[in-house]
Specification:
11 helices; binds flavin-adenine dinucleotide; FAD/NAD-bd_sf; SQRD
């Protein structure tokens, strides 16, 4: 039977694996390799940091969820892919070195969070991108008695060449990989400190390596600036973070912002496992260039989905799911199933939640890609949407067959 190996078990990889199994059935043996047995619903990790969710609420056990749907699971840390010999090399949990051959490969191991690129990260850095970061921030916030807080993202090291074979307007150059979580954290912390009764003792500053939320339309950015004005949040553009110190953060030009608590979305770079792989599989940033079917431009039996693919800009769960679905549909056709392959169309879809104040800002915007849609709306019902979406992801164990319809709510 045709062997399909899927690497990575979050939005992109899970969607690709579940969709392919559903579409191709017994025509493919599908197996997924992920670094850890448990995977976590990342968009609700900010909620962990403010104490409204627990990490356990967001965990999916891949070792049981995938076999329940006829997909094999192996826990392993992928070291490299040899695309020429169709082999993946990985390290098993006991430290032993393993390799696995494939007929088709679907890469969904995401990007790399470059915390090591920020001086002072180990001592002064806080984040929400992984469960352990969110828990560390939760403890710090619980003891925070007031002071200056900075929130921002590190630079995005986007690849430049070779380019993916897709319309150029689909892949704009970005300073930040994704500022949605920064926006969400800034709203959440306002609610958190208000609830704690120390809002007047806290000063929140948000910074961006370029123009903040440059992936949204000028009208949406203006709406966000108005929200920040109302909440007393200061906004600083063009601040490319370089160093964290005890009471300040410093950018690449030496500019400083006072900061007693420094929260950041670390710099995004290509995944080290991809950088160690066959050179012509990746671009100069360590991302995989593909065509609109998510098929590698150099190896036609390799697909890339989600953050690992160079065409997804910004790095967004919504785009990871869309690309995972398309790759599965395209491969199912090659395996003999007649399935309609969806057209890739990038749109920024995300919900920045503020659960402690009972509202969220729902964003839908394609103007960055030349479209006309631009919505950024704060409303109580949007908070409910985020809550339901989290429950939906957990209930389906990451198999979001209806996501295409739900995203247009
Ligand atoms: C705090 C936060 C909040 C966010 N909120 C939203 C949101 O509300 N909406 C939205 O659309 N997007 C959101 N995003 C962006 C979204 O989470 C990412 O775009 C999305 O997770 C990308 O999915 P992916 O599957 O491509 O990659 P990832 O989520 O990075 O998953 C990669 C998987 O591969 C595994 N892996 C990595 N390296 C290896 C290796 N070498 N070997 C084996 N396995 C490996 C990882 O453990 C992981 O399971 C948020 C991001 C953050 C950080």
């Amino acid at each position: 039977m045709t062997k399909v190996l899927v690497l990575g078990g979050r939005f992109g990889g899970l969607t690709a694996a579940y969709s392919l199994k559903r579409l191709a059935g017994s025509k493919a043996e599908v197996k997924l390799i992920n670094k850890s047995r448990f995977t976590y619903f990342r968009p609700a990790l900010p909620h962990v940091s403010i104490g409204v969710k627990d990490v356990e609420d967001l965990a999916i056990d891949l070792a049981s969820a995938l076999p329940e749907k006829g997909i094999g699971f192996t826990e392993g840390d992928v070291e490299k892919i040899d695309a020429k010999s169709r082999t993946v090399y990985y390290t098993a949990p006991d430290g032993s070195k393993k390799e696995e051959e494939y007929d088709y490969l679907m890469i969904g191991i995401g990007a790399h969070l470059g915390t090591e690129m920020i001086k002072g990260w180990d001592k002064y850095g806080y984040s929400v991108c992984e469960p352990e970061f969110a828990l560390k921030l939760r403890d710090r916030l619980a003891n925070f008695k007031g002071g200056k807080i900075t929130i921002g993202s590190g630079p995005f090291y986007q690849g430049k060449a070779p380019k993916p074979k897709v319309p150029e307007n689909f892949v704009p150059q970005a300073d930040s990989a994704c500022e949605g979580p920064v926006f969400e954290m800034s709203l959440m912390l306002h609610g958190y400190f208000k609830r704690k009764g120390i809002l007047d003792k806290v000063k929140i500053t948000v910074y961006s390596p370029g123009e903040y939320l440059s992936d949204l339309s000028p009208a949406s950015r203006k709406a966000v600036a108005e929200i920040y004005k109302g909440l007393g949040i200061e906004l600083v553009h063009n601040f490319r973070l370089n160093e964290l110190r005890e009471n300040e953060v410093v950018d690449e030009k030496g500019k400083k912002l006072e900061s007693d608590l420094s929260i950041l979305l670390p710099p995004y770079t290509g995944n080290p496992a991809l950088k160690a792989s066959t050179k012509d599989l990746i671009d100069d940033g360590g991302f995989v260039p593909t065509d609109l079917n998510m098929q590698s431009i150099t190896y036609d039996n390799v697909y890339a989905v989600g953050d690992s693919n160079s065409l997804t800009v910004p790095k967004l769960g919504y785009l990871a799911v869309q690309t995972g679905r398309i790759a599965a549909e395209h491969l199912a056709n090659r395996l003999g199933e007649r399935v309609k392959v969806e057209q890739y169309y990038p749109t920024i879809v995300c919900v920045a939640d503020n659960p402690l104040e009972g509202y969220a800002v729902s964003v839908k915007d394609d103007t960055w890609y030349g479209g006309q849609v631009s919505v950024a709306q704060p409303a109580a019902v949007n908070h409910l949407k985020k809550e339901l979406f989290t429950k939906y992801f957990m209930w389906t164990k990451g198999d979001m067959a209806l996501e295409k319809f739900l995203a247009s709510w």
